Amino acid sequence: MQKNGSRDLTAKMLIAMAAAVICGLGVIALRESLISGGNAQTWNTINSLLFADITAEGNESALGLFYIVGQLFVKALQLVIVPMVFTSIVSAMVRISDSRKLGRISSRTIGLFLTTTVLAIILAAVAGMTAFNAGAFRNTALDMAGSTGKTGSNPLNIILNAVPNNFASALTNNGGVLAIVVTAAAVGLSVNKLGDKVKIIPALCGEIGEIINVFLNFIVNRFGPAAIFCLLTRTCATYGIAHLRPAIAYVILTVALLLIVLFAGYALFVKVTTGLSPANFVKKIGKVALFGFSTSSSAATLPLNLKTATEDLGVNEEVASFVLPLGMTVNMDGTAIMQVIATIFIAGCSGYEISFSTLLLIGLLAIIASIGTPAAPGAGAVILFTILSGVGFNNELALMAYSLILAINRPIEMLVTALNVVGDSACAMAVAKSEGALDEQKYNA
User: Where residue 41 sits, what CATH number does that domain have?
Assistant: First the structure.
């Protein structure tokens, strides 16, 4: 049922996107026709009723219906950022307590997760910066807006801001992602150390995580298509085709990179770490990738992933039962790739320059943000906001580009989930091989 529901939602979102583009292009044509025909006042009235930013100076009497709907949707998603990151990381730290039983397995698992995520981010940064330097993400609306972004901040300030001086303030700032992560890690590791003495906090974090998933599913399922229509239509009406050209480049680049890693990257990883045929891995993991793609949820895919890893890939049950649930929480290679390219795309659209130090900061935040991304549909695009805040990409054009990401990212999120779950299985095979717990006969059967 969940799988069919996810397909229905995807269809609705794709229809909303197509309708928004058609409607947006119609609005662009109408605007140009009215302005060129000397009826600029008529366009101003339409813009005031539908598209105007009601928070901007001069728009005190505007209705901005499309703006209101889009912003309510974005704010509803941003509402869960802090509890989402905090509870996910606390739960991850608590799960690492299994390392007492699994010994070397835990360190090798975490090491492989970090290795694959770092490699994915490097690949995404190279591809993203190549597109950025080639001007693929350049938004010509910048010239009309006369706006360029400058962070005006020493990147090393992120180190100072990583350790909060107030627990409550750390949990009330969507932009302070590192402070939230450090606070969550401190709580999680302390709970880990205390073991069975602390039972309420792990249970509470788990319950809050469930509430967040229900909330996200409700918001995305009930209001996602309509909000996407409003967001994308307003983007077309406000910035026109200049905003859509770089968006097309973002989609093509991200999808191409995700497909390369999905079909070639992990197959090569399995070959290097286990010495086994990568063709068998691609063939047997296909159903897991398709299920992850359909549901857009690593959590929903976990039962099938466990079954496939133990029965088809030959991973020992003890190894699989540790590596895969942990990977569902902290191993998000696809999410990291998407977030890096999306951040570079937004920088290009909103006039920010990217120095080497900024690129390093984006990579660091992508690692942290991907670890803090729960296995819920659409969560990666929501957490992307924390990266933008962390690097200071927050002018109006950046927020518009972020809204565009929310509008067009559904198919990419589906592919991201497929990559995440396949990455978990590949790491499980590598860990099992290093522990002598990989049944090669099952794998080769």
Answer: 1.10.3860.10
b/e per residue 395-422 (b: at least 16 CB within 10 A): bebbbbbbbbbbbbbbbbbbbbbbbbbb
Tally of domains within the chain: 1
Distance CA 35, CA 52 (A): 17
Q: How far is CA 64 from CA 49, 61, 68, 234, in A?
A: 5, 9, 6, 10
CB 412 within 8 A of CB 327: no
**304-332 residue pLDDT tens:** 888 889 888 999 887 887 788 778 767 78
Give dist(CA 353, CA 348) in Å, integer. 7
Cα 309-313-314 angle, rounded to 5 deg? 95
Q: Which domain holds residue 388?
A: 2-444
Dihedral of alpha carbons 189, 192, 197, 201, sign: positive
Question: Tens of pLDDT along 136-185?
Answer: 776 544 443 444 444 444 545 656 777 888 888 778 776 566 677 778 87
Tokens 């739960």 locate to 91
